[in-house]
């Protein structure tokens, strides 16, 4: 399998190891597979009695054909070893009552990794794929991953890259712009190759600092002297997308295994969406042959995607809301570019024009034939803040099942879909974070007072109120040793990078 860019016709195809190391194509486009590999119902049947890594490797080897099966298997085993459940991605099946037997919801719990959010699924595997890619392409330099974070991605990347050979990772976070728990998660990260630095500024300062470093030829040359090459781990890297395709295939097999559906039954998939990575992975799973009917794209008050699917216009000229689902507070859903590429049958000129318009005017409009194609595959809607909190309370009341705010958005939108379309097909719903990751909002949704209660104490309170256990990585934070106290001005970031690279 070779990879090409969404923006250039007759692009010289590359191997997956190359595209995982490059991240983004030289023309500014995103890497896409030349074709989407197919799987059959028999293939899926064979996966029913396999474990998560076996299922994942079956998918990975279709896309990453320049890796050996052993390499992929080792990568998975290391990546998901730490997860706190044997099944890695449990499927929690919610059925309201006998009357609704025909409409089960399989909640894919994607948050059992090192940071209790779904980014772990990809950020644990990406470093393993990268370090093996370095060997394949004969790269002897060390790779330095730079991350600017508003909280969650930083820790997930640190956990994934810690002590991975031939890599170093450096994370910049805004000194006063992350929660106490997010900060503790990062500054307690162990590993010989990690650096965590607070920046006296906000998230934009961190992000601009990192962007400037990437664009600075002098710094790159300086780094070369220390035998170091810069790279990034952001969500448009193919190496972050492909691990996500795996859990849709695996969860379908798990749904069959549970006896809830039969092999070949069609399901709908619901995803709380921000950057469009997770739901795009579901799209690839559908195109591969998993019996998925509709992809239901759930948004919060920043419902640019709902409007796009319903009107055909993508328009970022709008108010931006800070919500209780911060991981979906996004106005540029980068991975949408890949969908546009595939659904225009690889019309790179068209994709390039859309992206140029988006860059210059903040919007673009698709024609009605493309919109009709997307209508057949997608349904999109959003949930308000009030709907989201009410749903957390309702689901806990009905099922004693506790969900985080992002998952609640997906559940709310599923309810709207079912009411509007009367389509009661079984559903696989992506649960993207542990409720303990968003303790404050979840406690409030349950009607609990949080005022004056410290973040760590809120974890215990939520555990007590719901009789659930705090995930072990979060429970350990109170007593974990602080390992990183580095802090710098926003104009000192490059200096810090050079210092760390030379260590
Ligand atoms: C990143 C994230 C999302 C959004 O996923 P995308 O792939 O960006 O669409 C949703 N929920 C949580 C908890 C996340 O961390």
Over the alpha carbons, how many angstroms does the gyration radius reach? 22 Å
Q: Can you count the beta strands?
A: 15
User: What are the low-pLDDT stretches, counting only 5+ consecutive residues below 50?
Assistant: none
Binned, the helix content reads 40-55%
Looking at the structure, what is the overall shape? globular
End-to-end separation in angstroms reads: 38 Å
Q: Largest sheet, if any?
A: 6 strands, mixed
- Specify the number of helices: 22
Return the structural class.
alpha/beta
| Whole-number mean pLDDT | 95
Question: Can you put this structure into words, describing what you see?
Answer:
The two termini are 38 Å apart. The protein is α/β, with parallel strands linked by helices. It is 46% helix and 15% strand. Strand 6, helix 8 (180-187) and strand 7 form a beta-alpha-beta unit.
What's the topology here?
Blueprint: E1 3-5, H1 16-22, E2 31-33, H2 41-47, H3 52-63, H4 69-80, E3 91-94, E4 105-109, H5 119-123, H6 125-137, E5 142-148, H7 152-161, E6 167-174, H8 180-187, E7 194-200, H9 203-215, H10 217-225, E8 228-231, H11 238-257, E9 267-272, H12 277-288, E10 292-299, H13 304-311, E11 313-315, H14 336-343, H15 348-361, E12 363-365, H16 368-377, E13 378-382, H17 385-399, H18 405-421, E14 427-431, H19 439-445, H20 455-466, H21 472-475, E15 486-489, H22 493-502
Parallel strand pairs: 4-14, 5-6, 5-8, 6-7, 7-15, 9-10, 9-14, 10-13
Antiparallel strand pairs: 1-2, 3-4, 11-12
Helix pairs in contact: 1-6, 3-4, 3-11, 4-6, 11-12, 17-18, 17-19, 19-20
